[in-house]
Amino acid sequence: MPDKKYKKMRLMKVRRYKNHTTITISYRHPDFKRLRIALRRVSSAFYQYKKVINILFSSMLIMIGICGIAYISRPYIINFAQSQITQDVVYTSSPSINHLPRSIPLQIEIQSINLQSKIVQTDINPDNTLAVPKDYGVVAWYESSPTPGEVGPSILVGHATSSWGDGIFANLSKVKKGDAIMVLRADGDIAEFTVDDVLEFPQDSFPTDKVYGNINYSGLRIITCGGVYNYLTGNYSNNIVVFSSLK
To answer: Cα 232–126–148 angle (5° rounding)?
Structure first.
């Protein structure tokens, strides 16, 4: 015969709470009271650990998301010319050779790579390196250099890539000798240049004089980044320079 004190034991209800589950038992024996307390403590501990794990997992996902957004939206700190631009260069013109008077450039077109862009102005950074345009989709003219068509090297720069894809000069390396470069100026004239050479230089040995140095003809230098991209420094290893002269 079962013990009489167990006869009235029966399961009454199970209640699930946010942090624990309660099992209510009708009983008259003290052992079942201890059982109910033990079950409640185990259930409560389980939900507490589960809550901590969820918080840690959510925090990890948030950190991964923040790092991903920061990486994607990071600025490309592309140093077009690690060598400093010499401040002693004085660009002079000679009326005896083919050239145009000074006039600010407005637009550029290179038909061989299907490129058309407006031209904005840029200057140099405090460390005398050439400042790059903030907009990846436009070309910038170094305002202290001759305007396109004047005697001397007129300097244009632009990005090859951006955080979201190609920059304005993504295909600049495909330009060939003999290709035409057209620059619309503020005076309405179009300065037409012929590509003389396309060269690539390591940034740690950039030939400043060759690119920025004075010349006795109307030249155009178009500079962008090239080589291998370093994700840690945000720099490319090389620079691509297109050398051209007024037609």
So the answer is: 95
Specify whether 138 is located in the same domain as 226. Answer: yes
Distances in Å between the Cα of 240 and the Cα atoms of 9, 18, 47, 91, 120 are: 88, 63, 61, 23, 20
> Does any domain span residue 8?
yes
Round to whole Å and give the CA distance between 73 and 75. 6
Same domain, 48 and 120: no
* Residues of the domain holding 199: 105-246
Mean pLDDT, range 131-137, rounded to an integer:
88
Query: Tens digit of pLDDT for each residue in 177-214?
Result: 999 999 999 999 999 999 999 999 998 889 989 999 99
Q: What is the dihedral of CA 204, 244, 146, 92, to 10 degrees?
A: 100
How many domains does one find in the chain? 2
d(CA 180, CA 97): 20
Residue 114 DSSP class: T
What are the phi and psi torsion angles at 174 (to 5°)? -85, -5
Distance from the Cα of residue 1 to its chain's centroid: 83
> How many angstroms separate the CA atoms of 162 and 164, rounded?
5
Terminal CA-CA length for the chain: 117
Statement to judge: residues 112 and 210 lie in one domain: yes
